[in-house]
Amino acid sequence: MSWIFLLFAGLLEIVWAVAMKQSAGFTRLWPTGVMGGAMLGSFGLLALAMRSLPLGTAYVLWTGIGAVGAFLVGVMFLGEALTPLRVIAATLIVSGMVAMKLA
């Protein structure tokens, strides 16, 4: 169950990061509210996952899911650049996540 909590915590991290971008510096009400709710949910699920997962593993996977997911959302939906260096960076993040999980 901890892995499921961690997966959903990471997905909610993507939601709050995108909502933060859409909030325009917390000047837009709905994106700011979505961001706050997703943050609470993400942190809560991360805390539940950490009951049985090692801190390093849980935190690396949570931030990795959020970072790579936010990168993909930015490229696919927000018109952000997809450059070779950014792809290499995202690949390195995923590689680190896999290595941490295997360790």
From TrEMBL:
One of its GO terms (molecular function) is transmembrane transporter activity. The chain crosses the membrane at residues 33-50, 57-79, 85-102. One of its GO terms (biological process) is xenobiotic detoxification by transmembrane export across the plasma membrane. It is a multi-pass membrane protein. Gene3D superfamilies: 1.10.3730.20. It comes from the Bacteria. PANTHER family: GUANIDINIUM EXPORTER, SMR FAMILY PROTON-DEPENDENT DRUG EFFLUX TRANSPORTER SUGE. This is Guanidinium exporter. It comes from Ruegeria arenilitoris.
